[in-house]
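Morning, I've got a small favour to ask if you have a moment. I've been staring at a protein lately and its backbone has me curious. You're getting the sequence in one-letter code plus the fold written as tokens. I've dropped the whole record in just underneath, so have a look:
=====
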Amino acid sequence: MSSPPNPAAEEHYYAGIDFFGAGKFAEAVAEYQRALELDPRFADALHGLAQAYHAQQDFDRTIETAHRILALDAEDVLAWTTISRAYQRKGMVPEAEAAGNKARVLGWKIQLREQNKLAKPPG
């Protein structure tokens, strides 16, 4: 379980969200990067950064940023999905399919874990 983000980092993260929502992707990138300077393990800011790069059609940076997320959590389904989408946009279909399959399998594993937690009798 990760710790809560640095409050100053969180402010930049939310500013990034606002810029992203307004279609100001370069400004969003800058805010997410500021958040990550303050808290390099802030996964939500990394996700935001990856999506902002994707919106700018900077697919190499999208993939690079998603890999930073995976370095923190190898089972992050959204990071694998982001990689798959970026590879698709680059026309790298086999790589996109491999990343998409990884996301799908991880999603199933998480779903099974949750089902098993619910199925266990208390005690």
Observations:
- The helical segments are 7-21, 25-38, 43-55, 59-72, 77-89, 93-119.
- The chain has one domain: 7-119.
